[in-house]
Amino acid sequence: MRATPHPMVATGRSLISLTGIRKVFRNGTVALDGVDLEVKRGAFLSILGPSGCGKSTLLRIIAGLTPVTAGAMESAEELEGSIGFVFQEPTLMPWANVWENVYLPLRLAHRARGDVAERIATAIREVGLEGFEGAFPRELSGGMKMRVSIARALVTDPVLLLLDEPFAALDEITRFKLNEDILRLWQQRHWTVIFVTHSVFESAFLSSEIVVMGPRPGRVVSEVPDDLPYPRGPQLRTAPEYAEFCRGLSRRLLEATT
Amino acid sequence: MNTAWAGRFARILAPILMGALFVVAWDGIVNYFEIKPYILPSPLLVVKALETSGGSLLVSLWYTLKVTAVALVSATVIGAAIAVLFSLSRILEISLYPYAIALQVTPIISIAPLIIIWANDAYLAVLICAWIVAFFPIIANTTLGLKSADRNLVALFRLYGASRWQILAYLQVPTALPSFLTGVRISGGLALIGAVVAEFVAGTGGTETGLAYRILEAGYRLETARMFAALLLLSLAGITIYFSLDGISRWLLSRWHESALPPEE
């Protein structure tokens, strides 16, 4: 087990670089103004901010789902078609079972079922849902639905994984468990993750780097490296340095909102 | 006996009991007030009318059902196809939808004479009328359903580079299925109504006639018991159409849609 920070942290090349991003909605709301952001390969970057600071919009811009009003985004070539996205809601197809939901990205890429069965089985196993392949979303709990959503995002083995407050609606125990699973998958798969959250504790636990955003208009207020030691397990949640780090982060978040 | 069984039992038994009660009351009233059979025949007379002219009524029922079925199937196919076109082309939708509404809100009984003049064939005229009334619920419900796809799922499809056809086939069509089936269920009843109304207007005689004309005919001759017999067959046909479409709908949605799930325990 590693006792030092994740070796990939801050050693990677730049994957995405945003400069002067401005986004104005049709109704005139300025969602983002002058946002600069650099995402390095291998980072676990959390975007921490209160509701309405434009953090989800920023994620959608990175995913290419929303155009910007002004500013520039440069992204590495390897990102082309290699982004996974997990929404705040599980966003599953209710008419399809777990297997078919996980198969979706590969189906859209015209991959035959038989050729990718192995990959789908692996993805389902990695989120701990073996035996539930035939279950429909309505038969699953909130946490299990979220796991399906994560399996669907990792089945394509993406370079970049975007998570938009994926655990906000879950109970605390389920959230802790999923936090640990995501952290483990990040380390095993050498992903780059951008994680949007309003939870100080969640971002402190997961990240290698934290960007604190403030509202009206949405902007980056501070960037904080998260150098809490690895491996990060349940014991970290009660460690004094974790509490200390969270206190500092809370202060910054409070400053950002006032 | 557990409660689930009791519930199912009551669901079948209660309406039957209610019907039996109604028939007994009906018979009692007719006998007590000595109502003339051409005003209100007793249930027994209706059964007798069914016996004597049941065969020819069934032939007419078959004719009406044929019209209804052909109208419903073609309205379903064409309505769904147009709804898909609307979902692909916004300009097509906004230019044609008002006319679909106009066709729907104009009472079919007022267009029927015109259609009869143009069609020059009773069967075809009745079919067109039934089609017109069956068509709108399908196009309206399917169009709505095709537009109701989850925004985030659409975003996800786009993120994975889905083509327009993939979004349509894998996302919009399954999303629209429940509302499409609602449209079909409504149209099933309306097609029958359309067929009957058009036949009343057409008023065709001869060998090939539907149940509606038989009701008119019996009415002219004051054979009220036969009117009742024809009415009974007609409403049985309507009920059968409704429940078969409802069954198909439940079967198609059985595993995932809220509407088709058993009640919570």
List keywords for this structure.
heterodimer, A: 258 residues, alpha/beta, 3-stranded antiparallel sheet, 7 helices, B: 265 residues, MetI-like fold, 2 domains, 9 helices, flat
Overview of the structural elements:
- The complex is a heterodimer of chains A (258) and B (265).
- Chain A has 258 residues and is of the alpha/beta class.
- Helix content of chain A is 35%, strand content 24%.
- Chain A contains 7 helices and 9 strands, in the order βββαββαααβαβαββα.
- In chain A, strand 1 and strand 2 form a beta hairpin.
- In chain A, 42% of the residues are buried.
- Chain B has 265 residues and is mainly α.
- Chain B folds into 2 domains: 31 residues; 218 residues, MetI-like fold (Orthogonal Bundle), CATH 1.10.3720.10.
- Helices cover 83% and strands 0% of the residues of chain B.
- Chain B is flat.
- The two termini of chain B are 17 Å apart.
- In chain B, 36% of the residues are buried.
- The mean pLDDT of chain B is 89.
- The chains are: A alpha/beta (258), B mainly alpha (265).
- Chains A and B meet through helix 2 of A and helix 6 and helix 7 of B.
Structure in a nutshell:
The complex is a heterodimer of chains A (258) and B (265). Chain A has 258 residues and is an alpha/beta fold.
Radius of gyration of chain A: 18 Å
Number of strands of chain A: 9
Following the backbone from N to C, one meets helices and strands of chain A in this order, namely EEEHEEHHHEHEHEEH
Q: How many domain regions of chain B?
A: 2
Query: Which architecture of the largest domain in chain B does the CATH hierarchy give at level 2?
Result: Orthogonal Bundle
Element string of chain B (H = helix, E = strand): HHHHHHHHH
Amount of helix of chain A: 25-40%
The most extensive contact between chains is:
A-B, 23 and 21 residues
Span of the ends, CA to CA of chain A: 41 Å
Radius of gyration of chain B, Cα only, in angstroms?
23 Å
- Contiguous low-pLDDT stretches of chain B (5 residues minimum) are none
The mean pLDDT of chain B is 89
Find the structural class of chain B using helix and strand composition: mainly alpha
Count the E strands of chain B.
Answer: 0
